[in-house]
Amino acid sequence: MRSERNLKCILLDDEIPSLRFLKMLCEQIPGLEVVKTFNDPAILLREYGTLSFDFCILDIEMPGFNGFDVARELKDFPIVFSTAYKQYASDAYDINAVDYMRKPISLQRLQQAIMKVAQIIDNQPEIVSFGQFNTNKGKTILYFDQINYVQIAEVDSRDKKVYLADGSIILLKNISFDKLLEILPVQDFIRINKKELIAAKIVKFFSADEITSNLLDPQAMPILFNLGESYKRMFFEKFS
């Protein structure tokens, strides 16, 4: 197991006895923390975005959504399957599952799966969550998750106005949108027209020409953005 920090997981199995047994095994592995257990895949899909975890252990045969449906939704997390059926093994590896455990699961077999997960997570590149930029007031550290959108500055188009989640505005000096998009996490930001790029998190609705954000103006009306013709294809692909 890793020594730097605990690994955090969520568990899914529609059979309560199996879920309890799996949780009991997990609790015997040092450095492994069970964040939450689920016996309904629909509830997991509704709640996982509010949880902090590293990987998932999923059953496969369940009513409603099966384990493969859930794994496709959780594609950014390492997946370990736990099932009584051997016929799903090839399908599991087709979607890049880390491991495939046959029930009944032993503690030793679970430890082997967790070691594979730990190795994968240890080898993932570190995610950069902030950058250093030049502003009209000197250098600043800007955390990406605080950015709502960016506009070309009115006075000098080489400068960019960054609108932050706390309502403040920072003026970045002499930086292009192309350079900004090289620095910002590609999955979280997108250019929408010649004058603006936005964080994906602020998109509430969109049409062929207009984006309605979840941000409000001083009159408590949603802030709207124009979707430029040259940027539509990339935008629609991102949100398809």
Automatic annotation (TrEMBL):
InterPro entries: CheY-like_superfamily (IPR011006), LytTR_DNA-bd_dom (IPR007492), Sig_transdc_resp-reg_receiver (IPR001789), WalR-like (IPR039420). Keywords: DNA-binding, Phosphoprotein, Transcription, Transcription regulation, Two-component regulatory system. GO terms for molecular function: DNA binding. The modification 4-aspartylphosphate is found at residue 59. It holds the Pfam family Response_reg. Gene3D superfamilies: 3.40.50.2300. Residues 8-118 form the Response regulatory domain. SUPFAM superfamilies: CheY-like (SSF52172). PANTHER family: REGULATOR OF RPOS (PTHR48111), TWO-COMPONENT RESPONSE REGULATOR ORR33 (PTHR48111:SF1). This is DNA-binding LytR/AlgR family response regulator.
